[in-house]
Amino acid sequence: MKILIIEDEPDLAESIQQYLQQEHYLCEVATNVKEGREKIEYFDYDCIVLDIMLPGGSGLTLLEELKRDRKQDGVIIVSAKDTVDDKIESLKLGADDYLSKPFHLAELSARIESIIRRRQVQGSNEIHFGDIIADISGKAVYVNEKEVTLTKTEFDLLLFFLMNQRRVISKNAIAEHLSGAAAIYLDNFDIIYSHVKNLKKKLGKAGNAIKTIYGTGYKLSE
Amino acid sequence: MKLLNYTSLRYLLFAALLLLFSIPVFYVVLNKIFTKSIDKDLYLQAKQIPAQIHSIKSERDLVLWKALDKDLEIILADSVSFHSKPYTGKVVRGTREETFRILQKKLRILDKDYVVQIESSVLEKDELIKTILVIQLGLLLILLCGAVAINYFINKKVWKPFYKSLSRLQHFNVEGRFDENLSDTKIDEFKQLNQSVTQLTTSVRKAFLSQKEFVENASHELQTPLARLKFKLELLSQESSGSQKQHTLIGEMYKAMEQLQSLNKNLLLLSRIENGQFDFSEQVNVKAIVREVVDDLAFIASSKSQEVIPGFAVDRCVIQTNKVLFKVLLKNLLLNAIQYSANNTVIRVEVDENTLIVSNPGTPMTLPASRLFERFSKSDTQKGNGLGLAIVKAIASLYQYRLGYKYNAGHHEFEVQWGEKNKMIV
């Protein structure tokens, strides 16, 4: 899987690259419009992480060019300018998703994963991990081919784990992913504990793959 | 008291006093003049009497004279008291009693002492004085009213630049647009006033703008290093070699990091709202937004076993506003309610035609209500950064919603009221 990160802050781009590379992604970085345009022209990417404010122009022009040339690359816009215009404009121009800065790397990774999955023409929309199979479009989970009934929150939580396999996910990132609001408004993370506990219980033995990283969060690993 | 009324009242007071004083003086003076002239007449008449006396030779002549000259009265000297100077007295003529000016003169006719009384009626004189006084009074009144009116209008015109400056100051709003054009005036004092007003407002605005600019720039510049820090922390937490102690430290740093980021994000949002960077507005279905936000916050509410229950008094409520900001407004009000309510409580959102009320149970707050919507004013127990309600206020003032708070029967109630102009004509 090839990902292109177009972001003017080299340090931020590098962090994103580093995080994504821990999975099976191959990441390349462009720091301005010109560089981004060249890369897009010569190569095909599964997903492009595109910042709007770039030296030498707006990221949205790159998006326009991409759509004009009928390129199939998935695009996720990341922007610090959290304005409605940008979001509407981005989605209207054909971006697959929009993420406003600041975001969690785990969140970005999950969004990229789902964009790539949505764009895969052939193959089922399923994620496997050990004995666990999650059917994203069917919203169903199977452990050893037996269906497990999960609540909506538990399903979202499991999917978030599956899309960030073998990586530590902070409780903050989980809270934000599930609540849509900053985790600072939570009195404590008890609710995360209890959802994870229930999820593990429902997954049975396979649930042991969700490991608690004391002080930080959780990690899905063998 | 208005300036104009103040001066006009002084004028009127002066006019009234002048009238009150001048009328009696006038009367006395006129009366004196007229009496003097009547007396002069009387003396003149009296002078002619000795000449007439020569022609009286007998008692019969005297009787005839008495009968002929109506203005004279000839009385025997012993029967009346004698006044050497003219005096005013009442004389009965026929059935009527009239006031006369009387001059008495001693005469000797046919060896008998007589007193001749020359009389002149003062009725005419009184009437004349009355007429003159009425005319005079009328003229004075007209004159004074005219003076007051002219003064009023002149003052009104003269003070116009002053009132203009005053209203400019009254409508001055550091955040709003300001009419820099000064009204032209010839009067030096007003020129100076205008200059001072302009100087003052300009410097206030400058200070305000630079403060705003600073906040915006600072929070904007902070974004990248904060994001960098956050990413590094996230990467650091991936290091499996880290000890439990290190992971705990990372977790704590993460928490502080999030707080910092949220604070920064809110500050930035606040400056953007205040800078009018959200002037985009559209038709917004309030009911849909309420459902959406309540849904978004269900997770946070459930962490305290709270329930957010929306209630709609109307079927359809569409207003003209900015969707994102309206969502932020409601979200902040609800987050505030969630944080200030105990576990296992119910928070309500009531929507009717032009109001939205968020109510939550709780003890009376320690914060004075007037400071509620100020930046960084929060009670010690609150988790947020004290900007939530300040953002609500900024959004409300941008769209001219009326924002209210009251504590009612154990419930905190926040009310947002939009006017007719926000409403959509459906």
SSE topology:
The complex is a heterodimer of chains A (222) and B (426).
Chain A: E1 2-6, H1 10-21, E2 26-30, H2 33-42, E3 47-51, E4 53-54, E5 57-58, H3 59-68, E6 74-79, H4 84-92, E7 97-100, H5 105-119, E8 126-129, E9 132-135, E10 140-143, E11 146-148, H6 152-162, E12 168-170, H7 171-179, H8 190-203, E13 210-213, E14 217-220
Parallel strand pairs in A: 1-2, 1-3, 3-6, 6-7
Antiparallel strand pairs in A: 4-5, 8-9, 9-10, 10-11, 12-14, 13-14
Chain B: H1 3-53, H2 59-68, E1 72-76, E2 87-93, E3 96-109, E4 112-121, H3 123-158, H4 160-170, H5 188-236, H6 244-274, E5 282-285, H7 286-302, E6 307-312, E7 318-321, H8 323-340, E8 346-351, E9 355-361, H9 388-398, E10 402-408, E11 411-417
Helix pairs in contact in B: 1-3, 4-5, 5-6, 6-9, 7-8, 8-9
Structure, explained:
The complex is a heterodimer of chains A (222) and B (426). Chain A is an alpha/beta fold and 222 residues long. Chain A contains eight helices and 14 strands. In chain A, the strands form four sheets. A five-stranded parallel sheet of chain A has the order 2-1-3-6-7, with helices on both faces. Chain A has a four-stranded antiparallel sheet with strand order 8-9-10-11, with helices on one face. Chain A has a three-stranded antiparallel sheet with strand order 12-14-13. In chain A, helix 6 (152-162) crosses helix 8 (190-203). Chain A starts with a strand and ends with a strand. In chain A, 45% of the residues are buried. With 426 residues, chain B is of the alpha+beta class. Chain B has nine helices and eleven strands. In chain B, the strands form three sheets. Chain B has a five-stranded mixed sheet. A four-stranded antiparallel sheet of chain B has the order 1-4-3-2. In chain B, strand 2 (87-93) and strand 3 form a beta hairpin. Classes of the chains: A alpha/beta (222), B alpha+beta (426). At the A-B interface, helix 1 and helix 7 of A face helix 5, helix 6, helix 7 and helix 8 of B.
